[in-house]
Amino acid sequence: MRQCLVFLCITSLFAADSSPWEEKFRAIPNPQNQRDYMQRLSARPHHVGSPYDKDNAEWIAAKLKSWGLDAKIENFDVLFPTPKDRLIEMVEPTKFTAKLQEPPLAVDPTSNQQSVQLPVYHAYSIDGEATAPLVYVNYGIPADYEQLARMGISVNGAIVIARYGASWRGIKPKVAAEHGALACIVYSDPRDDGYFVNDVFPEGPDRPRDGAQRGSVMDMPLYPGDPLTPGVGATPDAKRLPLSEAKTLTKIPVLPMSYGDAQPLLAALQGPVAPEAWRGASRSPITSDRDPLKSTCA
Predict the structure, then answer these.
(1) Which residue, among 155, 186, 164, 144, has the nearest Cα to 275 in the 3D structure?
(2) Nearest to 253 by CA among 167, 179, 160, 163
């Protein structure tokens, strides 16, 4: 944005002499180039450390060099956890096992690369397991726990389920742990990210029923970057913390899920009716508008 403002200032001061340059500048952006570049970069899974991530880096560096820029690639060895096992089950009052997987769509050939895709998970969640009552905590921000306290509801010793929105995803397990929760589930509610907002993919831009939002939940306000090398680059010879001393990992396990997976859990909840602002947008009549301590998840 600063570059754009500077450019406008310069053209206003030297408009009489800069018209040819302005025309050249305006001719550079090409929407088709942007489409082609994005399709190329996203054609295969390219998470950090993957073969296509390296391929993309080399392609970008070559592009920059072809434009006359001085570009080089530097390597850093960072902690990047990927899960071996993931499981969310409701064990009572009925049995239900979450899929925790996005189905391939014929309209999107890249969605059928599941053997090399990252699974539905939150990076930098600690390992762990818990079997406990489930409590709906709205967005899982501090104000929501204050509201729960006024309603006489505690999450101490419980698993919380929060919807995405109103804060960065890493805040939700952090605040849940501070209130004594044993684990955290974060789901995408259609009121915020789905058919309530817009048509869903592939007809529109919003998240479909089985879509789940991945992402990091590390405690970045504490310090960003590699959890094992705070304050310095994660070069091969950098001094590293033991994993047990990495302070930006979550204190409780956390997993994301789609609203398709979340609906059976929310439907099983009982208890006092939630405030109107807490209510999601499920098409089915369920008790997602309640926050109880009576459904048990593992």
Answers:
(1) 144
(2) 160
* Domain range annotation of the chain: 2-66, 89-297
Thinking of the domain 89-297, which architecture would CATH place it in? Answer: 3-Layer(bba) Sandwich (3.50)
> Is-contact 23 11, C-beta < 8 A?
no
Integer Cα distance of 298 and 279 in angstroms: 24
pTM > 0.70: yes
Instruction: Give yes or no for a contact between 179 and 155, defined as CB atoms under 8 angstroms apart.
Output: yes
What's the token pair of residue 190?
A: 């259609």
Take residue 212 and report the two structure tokens written for it. 């789940």
Tokens of 256: 């994301």
Give the single-character DSSP code of 143: H
Pairwise CA distance, residues 166 & 54, whole Å: 34
Q: What is the pLDDT of residues 62-87, one digit of tens each?
A: 999 998 999 999 999 999 999 999 99
Residue 42's pLDDT band, with cuts at 50, 70 and 90, is: very high
CB atoms closer than 10 angstroms to residue 42:
12
pLDDT in tens, 256-287: 999 999 999 999 998 888 888 998 886 554 54
Residue 8 exposure: Cα atoms within 13 Å on the Cβ side:
5
Question: Stretch 206-220: mean pLDDT, rounded?
Answer: 94
Asked if the model's pLDDT at residue 16 lies above 80, the reply is no
Amino acid identity for residue 51 in this structure: P
Retrieve residue 157's tokens.
Answer: 């010793």
